[in-house]
Write a structure and sequence with these properties.
Blueprint (H helix, E strand, L loop, with lengths): L2 H24 L1 H15 L1 H22 L3 H18 L3 H35 L1
Keywords: Coiled coil
InterPro entries: Biofilm_formation_YmcA (IPR016783), Com_YlbF (IPR010368), YheA/YmcA-like_dom_sf (IPR023378)
Organism: Pseudolactococcus carnosus
Amino acid sequence: MPSNQTDRALSDYDLTVNRLLSKLAQHPTVVQFQAAESKLKATSALYALEVEMKALAKDAVLYKKIGKVKAYQETMARSKVVEAQLNNEPILIDYRRKMTAANELLQHLLQNLETQINEELHREK
């Protein structure tokens, strides 16, 4: 493929990706998730607890993988305490619901793209 065609193909690809991202950013599910995320971040104490809980959960998984049983148990216990604090917060409940919906949207989109790409690849053979 000559350079001009390669450049044009890349340009078309970049344009298509940018259009997809723009449309996705305007999707109501994504807009609602971003709004919920902004509210959570504005409540810095809750956001800090959410970040701490995620970090503790990651640490616990690591401790379990490397066989540090006591560290795993202590980290999981702390994570559960933080999680219990967060589970009753309406802002966080809303954020998690909207994050789940946005994730499901993205998974659906990716599955459709994968299917279309695979179908196109099989047609070309």
